[in-house]
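In response to the reviewer comment on reproducibility (Comment 2.3), we provide here a single inverse folding case reported in full, input and output, so that an independent group could reproduce the run without further information from us. The structure tokens appear first.
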């Protein structure tokens, strides 16, 4: 079985569209369609649900998607090692980040690495920590910058990030030196990524705080704008409080709350990812397993 068919199938699932998958991989839409038909014929079961809104996996496709990803990972690993034996460097490094602030700290390392290894490409994706760690375990990404979670992965601490409150600068809360966590049960609260396993929800649950949720958004930048418009308050990490606007004031929480941030990766990784980890100073004695 050609691994490019597996790559095309998984890309179609990721993008939700055969045309988007074709554009990303450099094929024609008809070429991708033929690959999908050939793959379904080889497996003997339907793998794609096709509709006006795009494509999705069938039940059978969902059952074997993870095995496909592992197959692709080992195929790419073999190709990189073969290239290394020939004295050629090739491959890609996929990095996920839940923190724009911490990513900025390794951006110089990325630039330096690229100068020494021009044959290695980078791809960056954003997301929240638990989501990215699932991507890591499925070999969709090679490493991620995340807050500490439970799991069977390696993790090197980068530092601590303080959780803060975003409050309207024009309101009475802006005069406080810190916002008590209990206040979130009274003031209108803007919930970011409702229902998702993010640090906000973990911290609120740990402290038995039930916020007065009046608004929900799937986007932190939108939450910032809503706070600036005086609709309510939101909670986020200080490193991710990077949006501009004079209408929002950032307050520490009381009691002070921090999360541990680090780089997560697996024991089994590509030569390219291994080389980059060495570049950013991850040595064998510094590796820490997620607990």
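Designed residues, in position order:
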């Amino acid at each position: 079985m050609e691994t490019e068919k597996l790559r095309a199938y998984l890309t179609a699932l990721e993008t939700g569209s055969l045309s988007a998958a074709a554009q990303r991989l450099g094929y024609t839409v008809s070429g991708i369609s033929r690959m999908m038909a050939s793959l379904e014929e080889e497996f003997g079961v339907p793998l794609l649900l096709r509709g006006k809104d795009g494509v999705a996996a069938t039940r059978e496709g969902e059952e074997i998607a993870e095995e496909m990803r592992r197959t692709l990972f080992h195929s790419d690993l073999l190709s990189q090692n073969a290239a290394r034996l020939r004295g050629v460097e090739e491959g890609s490094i996929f990095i996920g980040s839940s923190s724009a602030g911490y990513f900025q700290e390794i951006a110089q390392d990325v630039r330096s690495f690229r100068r020494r290894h021009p044959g290695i490409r980078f791809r960056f994706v954003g997301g929240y920590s638990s989501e990215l760690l699932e991507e890591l375990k499925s070999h969709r990404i090679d490493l991620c910058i995340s807050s500490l979670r439970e799991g069977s992965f390696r993790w090197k601490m980068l530092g601590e990030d303080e959780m803060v409150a975003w409050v309207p600068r024009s309101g009475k809360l802006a005069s406080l030196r810190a916002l008590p966590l209990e206040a979130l049960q009274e003031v209108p609260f803007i919930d970011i990524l409702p229902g998702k396993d993010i640090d906000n929800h973990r911290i609120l649950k740990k402290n038995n705080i039930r916020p007065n949720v009046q608004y929900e958004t799937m986007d932190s930048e939108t939450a910032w704008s809503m706070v600036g418009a005086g609709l309510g308050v939101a909670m986020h990490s200080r490193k991710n409080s990077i949006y501009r606007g004079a209408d929002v004031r950032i307050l520490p929480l009381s009691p002070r709350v921090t999360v541990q941030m680090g780089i997560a990766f697996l024991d089994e990784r590509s030569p390219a990812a291994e080389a980059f980890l060495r570049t950013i100073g991850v040595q064998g004695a510094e590796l820490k397993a997620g607990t």
